[in-house]
């Protein structure tokens, strides 16, 4: 049948067949492989980001775990029968500011679904120097009993120049 066609018609059919073949190759082989390559690059980028995030989370988790072990060790090293009130009372005596303490109000807050409670003591200290307060706060914050000053309010005392009054709230965790 092709032999009956003129030379020009045969070349046209061959050219059209070649064009159709090129179209089929491009459409069903080249484009899918390019799309697959782009998709694989995107997947690789997403998985690289996920891996980077996982490594960051692992690092954060390790840091938290280390901090938790340290806190547990410090918590376990507390003396038996530790109470925040008695600890602060003892520190005021050691810092030599016991006579300046106007009041100490203890309170506790029970944590839901936790074996711990938050123990707080609000203290008012009147007529002491900034140096005395600083020394006392340093001894509270640097103790191994996991005690922290939660709130601090300082005002000038009405007494001679250079004296202050302070109200501070100190807290720690204790077993329920």
What this model shows, in words?
The structure is a single chain. This protein is of the alpha+beta class. It has 2 domains: 74 residues; 92 residues, 2-Layer Sandwich (Alpha-Beta Plaits). 53% of the residues lie in helices and 27% in strands. The chain has 3 helices and 4 strands, in the order H-H-E-E-H-E-E. Strands 1-2-4-3 form a 4-stranded antiparallel β-sheet. Strand 1 and strand 2 form a beta hairpin. Helix 2 packs across helix 3. The termini are far apart. The mean pLDDT is 89.
Short description:
The chain is built from three helices and four strands, in the order ααββαββ. By secondary structure, the protein is an alpha+beta fold. The longest helix has 70 residues, at 7-76.
List keywords for this structure.
alpha+beta, Alpha-Beta Plaits, single chain, 4-stranded antiparallel beta sheet, 2 domains, 53% helix, rod-shaped, 176 residues
């Amino acid at each position: 049948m092709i032999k009956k066609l003129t030379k020009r018609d045969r070349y046209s059919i061959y050219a059209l067949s070649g064009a159709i073949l090129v179209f089929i190759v491009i459409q069903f082989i080249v484009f899918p492989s390019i799309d697959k390559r782009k998709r694989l690059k995107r997947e690789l980028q997403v998985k690289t980001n996920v891996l980077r995030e996982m490594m960051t989370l692992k690092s954060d988790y390790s840091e938290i775990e280390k901090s938790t072990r340290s806190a547990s060790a410090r918590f376990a090293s507390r003396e038996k029968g530790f109470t925040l009130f008695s600890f602060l009372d003892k520190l005021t005596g050691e810092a030599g500011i016991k006579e300046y303490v106007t009041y100490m109000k203890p309170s506790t807050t029970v944590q839901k679904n936790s074996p711990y409670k938050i123990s707080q003591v609000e203290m008012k200290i009147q007529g002491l120097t900034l140096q005395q307060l600083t020394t006392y706060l340093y001894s509270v914050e640097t103790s191994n009993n996991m005690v922290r000053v939660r709130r601090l309010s300082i005002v000038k005392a009405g007494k001679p120049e250079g004296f202050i009054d302070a109200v501070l709230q100190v807290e720690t965790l204790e077993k329920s």
